[in-house]
Amino acid sequence: MAKILIIDDDSIVVFVQQRILQKCGVSYEPLAFKNAQEGIKYLRDTTIQEREYLIFLDINMPEISGWEFLEILQNLEDTEDIKVIMVTSSIDSCDKKKSIDYKNVYSFIEKPITVERCNELRTDPELAQFFQ
Predict the structure, then answer these.
(1) Quick one: fold of 3-120?
(2) How far apart are CA 39 and CA 73, in angstroms?
(3) Are the CB atoms for 111 and 88 separated by under 8 Å?
(4) From the centroid of its chain, how far is CA 40?
(5) Which residues, in sequence order, are CB contacts of 45 under 8 Å at separation 6+?
(6) What is the pTM of this model?
């Protein structure tokens, strides 16, 4: 079952992203995690057969950054069905270039995510299973 996860330390951003994703017709209620540690724990606790995820990931978070999350994700087994969309307030072009180094990163979006951008994702054939 394909699921959407939002990992961001800003509760307002999480709320807005959930509403926008719902307006765009996501298949299931997006699961939200307030930090990268919770997201990693959730992924570790799921079985390999359940690991079809689209993760909206913030870069700048306390304790474990989005980059550190991606490093940990790369070391987990059977993560080929996990796609990560970096959603960040960073305007540093180096961040976008750096994201290419991670096999699970599918896209890079500057905050705030908009309904228009979400609709672009919805029509992407690679992401169809996450939307109705």
Answers:
(1) Rossmann fold (3.40.50)
(2) 10
(3) yes
(4) 12
(5) none
(6) 0.93
